[in-house]
Design brief:
rod-shaped; 8 helices; Hemolysin E, Chain: A; mainly alpha; single chain
Length: 296
Amino acid sequence: MEETIRKQTAMLEELSEAEKAYARQFSEDIDIMDSRAVLQYGMAAQKKIMQFSEASLFEIPSADQEEIAKDIRKLKRKLAEFRSQYERSTLKPGSEQALTEFKSIYDSFSSALIEAARRMQIHRSSLLRHVSRLDKHYETCLKIIREFDLYLYAGKIHLETCREDILQELHEKAEKTKAMQDLEIMRDYSRACLRFEKKLSDLSVSRALPFQTMAQIRLMQNNAAALAENLNRLCTDTFPLYRSRLVFSLGLSDEKIIASETFEEVCDDLNRTLNAILKMQTESREKEKKGLSLFG
């Protein structure tokens, strides 16, 4: 058990001198013979991380994720309708009427693209705000870890004093007097040291929880940032490129309608991009759920 505490408190050398001084002063108020005080030692930090993990971290904007998927699927349906209207057209390619009809259905889909871009930028802004919120959660975890460190450092100092000084004195006295009362006092104090050592070991285990939370935060941040970047590229690159390829394919003189092969290729490219974003979103949420199961 002592080895566990030693490993878990190896990081305590990173405490500032001011923090160490505070912990040393705090250690003087510890009373390992007070069972209630020992039971409550470090409980404030344990309570904070449990409340934080159960509430703050899990305020995941699932509604935003669902809206993103909903808007992308809506655009996919619009794209399918656009393709269907094009394929159902029986007008002779090259005729003015065919070109007019194509422009009509294209304008309708172009409006859908503009609306989709507007919605995606809203979602992107929401995702970036979520990334910022998670930064604050990360900082909260660091503060809680530091609180655990102070409890552990103070406890380690006090436990060493108890064993090396007080317990040793009680042991020497019991050996000298051979009195049952002194022997029992020494045993009681030794058991109190063990109870407090166990408490420090429990705090060391609890200290690992914010590290797990921090790993989950980074995963969620990376997923949100990647999705936000994909939505941005969709608006700034994919949509404009899709529209320009269709317009360019119509020809400069308005004498011909877009070729079927070109139309299908351009639409397939857009559809693949939308599918890729949906797939990435689904996979990211599954990874987050697996991470969250660590806390459940």
